[in-house]
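Researcher: Please generate the 3D structure of the following complex. Treat every line as part of one assembly.
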Amino acid sequence: MQCPKCHARMHTYNRNGVEIEQCSGCRGIFLDYGELEALTRLESQWSQPGPPHQGAPQAYPPAPPAAPAWGAPHGGHGGHGGHGHHGHGRHKSFGHMLFSS
Amino acid sequence: MPGPFTAHQGDLLPADVLPALTAKARGAAHPRSAVCACTTQDTVLTDRADGTVVRHGDTVAKAHAPGTDPVELSQRLAVAAHPHLSGILLPPLGLTPVDLHGRLVTCWPYGTPVDPEAPENAPWEEAATLLARLHSTPPSTLAAGLPPMRGPAKAARAIARLQAAGPHPAAAPVLRAWSSLPAWARAEGPMPGAGALCHGDLHLGQLVRHPAPEGSWLLIDVDDLGLGDPAWDLARPAAWYACGLLPPDEWNRFLTAYQQAGGPAVPVDGDPWATLDVPARALTVQTAALAIVKSVAADRPLDEVQQAVVEACGRMLAMPEQLMPGDAK
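Model: Done. Output below.
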């Protein structure tokens, strides 16, 4: 899905068994109906003694590496990220470009 | 790309060169035999304006681009064969190019390339480490008088082809972005700095595993190798990332591996774009120019990926100076 704020591609991450969408551009997070409550419930369980061990919580990916000012638009960050096209899967034309002088 | 003998033969290679090239590959594969008795098929690996490569068994023969300087090519072959570059560059089978019907031909061992159908498996870390080692090789330990790295010259040639291709609506921003580059990046002035040993034309087609199929990754194609700004060799992946084509994690893997291997083109910490910016602009412009040339020749509109590269050229005009990340919001 596309980010409603900056229109970059959103990626799905699993957070304690709750699937959330994070924007690859502005890093904003989208929660479906009930997911906030699910996360809150998990948080309260976590703070109680003997939290259920379901493996380490999955960290959010870091911000993308630096890119030049003329780089592909990066949502609300004014043009220093590379998020224009790769979110749509490897384009055949880019596959060819990777091997071309 | 592999293709049948006849695919581009009329455009790219005079009809008499391909059989001679094939015979050369066969001769190099069987140096002591007058007749090839093996059942190996001859395969054309690439057939492009900048070189045709034919494989016979474990040997390939390359016909270099028309106009290749024989002295410079010999110097580059000597670098590829030098013990200091062992494990970095694929060494040639012989140090002297042969003239076949006006084309210079060299022979090489066959290596397994990156699978064009699975570029997601690209060996980014290995490529970066090979580049870091290449760039760290002191030129003074090699033969004196190495030619310059030909990256800027190839960018200039792409612009000349764009100018000769005829009108195209996307040409204007590409040409303006080109004219905004410093003279050295347009091959109109000397490159700054002392100059490191550079590959000059890095892309995923320039890596093979040797011995095939599971040997170490090595860099191939020394046609553009020489002294220059090592950032040029990182600038094609940098340009793909900046254009929004290469995913951030793949760019990050490549850049981090280069830094960890001690490559001199970018600082270990701090902004790599201080040195990457100009070469990445130049290679973005070069890629856009060649995309437009192809688009005109095929009478086909630019696709989404090519359009992204042209759009990046347009944005360069609004931002003549590199802005630090975080400046714009």
